[in-house]
Write a structure and sequence with these properties.
Number of strands: 0
Order of helices and strands: HHHH
Structural class: mainly alpha
Strand content: under 5%
Helix content: over 70%
Largest sheet: none
Distance between the termini: 81 Å
Number of helices: 4
Shape: elongated
Radius of gyration: 30 Å
Amino acid sequence: MSRKGKSRIVEIGGQVSEWVSALFAHPYMQIGVIVFCLAWFALGLKTDLLTAALSILAITLTQMVLNRQTEREIDDRRRDVAMHAKLDELLIAMKGARDEMAGIEELDEEEIVQLKENIQDKVEKLDEELDERADEKGEARAVAS
């Protein structure tokens, strides 16, 4: 078993899937398949063999792409969890930061939207207060002059 808990055969299969799906995703390869099919028809070869081969190839390539996507999603999830852990640590360590914000990614989307709206409301109120204070200072300076 490897360090990620996968057998060596699974790792090799993943590498082959990555290489083959990348190869067949290239535009030149797609043009090559079209040219190959046209040549097959031009030579008058049996179309049932071509159809069977293309069907098997399509199914295999689809599975290879799905395997790669699953691996990417696993890696993305791991990175997301790590990033949230780091952000939670920073939120908890910061003076003035609300500890309850740590871990909000686990809430339902509606709850997160509500928290965001509450924060935006507070920011707008603070902006208004700062504007009022700035106006008061400006008036005080004008009176003092």
